[in-house]
Amino acid sequence: MAAAVCLVLGLGLLGGSVLGSRLAGAPVTTVSATGPRTYELARTLWAETPVDEIFPRTLNGPDAGPGGADRRWTRIGVDPRTRCSDAAFDPLLARALAPVGCVRLLRATYTDATATSVTTVGVLVVEGDRAAVRALRKRWTDERLGERADMLPRPYAPAETPAAGFGDRQRASWTVRVHTGLPFVTYAVSGFADGRSVERPQPAAEAVVPGDTAAPAQAGMGHEAGGLAELVDNRLREAADAQARRAAGEEQR
User: Rounded to an integer, what distance in angstroms lies between the CA atom of residue 189 and that of residue 150?
Assistant: First the structure.
């Protein structure tokens, strides 16, 4: 019974604008304060912030769809497991992320308004310091790791939901973002809700290029992954800034 109570409490505390630049992998920083104090505080954000603030039940993405269409997503599941696990990533991606370590791993899955697509969004709370994260960011950019189809995040597929059949073979598009001002790596991976397999997944930056004829691009899967990752990034930055302001106010008192 004690373990069940802890699980319930843990679940309660889990835890755009220019879409093209984000999808292209621009460094993600905080909205304002990015100093060492903010960075260290943000490591506890997952435990102090309600899950609905990090992964809201619904997310609206104005102009986030193909052709600037508005998008709306509904959360269909939050992973109750927050312990770090390499199983959430393809082996080579897990190896690439290993140098920054892991404090917690948070995941939720959303579906679009038509229930034709499903997307898992994740937040890796890293253990490494800012230098380690900057080194990972540099490697990520220099080696173009975000374009490799053998380094994808894996889906979280809650049972009895439109994402129940969302497995590795169903992954269509993805994005992985290494923050430079906060101790997070955020990611999103999208697929078709009908369980169809995808022969060649596309990174979100490619799948949003107008005129691309690949199946993920034609279905708007890059917009699904990129739009949700962008919205969760915004939530994290806002929460981290609010946390830093609270801490500063307490210190002044």
Answer: 13
* pTM > 0.90: yes or no: no
Residue 81 buriedness (CB in 10 A; 0-12 / 13-18 / 19+): middle
The total of other beta-carbon atoms located within 10 Å of residue 211's CB is 5
Neighbours of 234 (CB within 10 A): 16
Q: Which two tokens stand for residue 207?
A: 């799948």
Contact partners, residue 21, CB within 8 Å, separation at least 6: none
Distance between CA atoms of residues 193 and 183, nearest Å:
32
Among residues 141, 227, 126, which one has the least CA distance to residue 181?
126
Domain ranges of the chain: 2-252
pLDDT at 62: 76
Q: What is the pLDDT of residue 15?
A: 35
Q: What gap in Å lies between CA 43 and CA 50, rounded to an integer? A: 15
Residue pair 178/140 in contact by the 8 Å Cβ criterion: yes
- As beta bridge partners, residue 110 has 75, 119
Q: Which residue has the tokens 């073979």?
A: 169
- Residue 206 CB burial class (10 angstroms; 0-12, 13-18, ≥19): middle
Consecutive 10-residue averages of pLDDT for the chain (253 residues): 38 36 39 65 92 94 70 94 94 97 97 94 96 96 96 96 95 95 96 94 94 91 94 93 84 67
pLDDT at residue 253 in the model: 66
Measured distance CA(175)–CA(182) in Å, rounded: 18
pLDDT of the residue at 64: 63
What the block records as the tokens of 16 is 């755009």
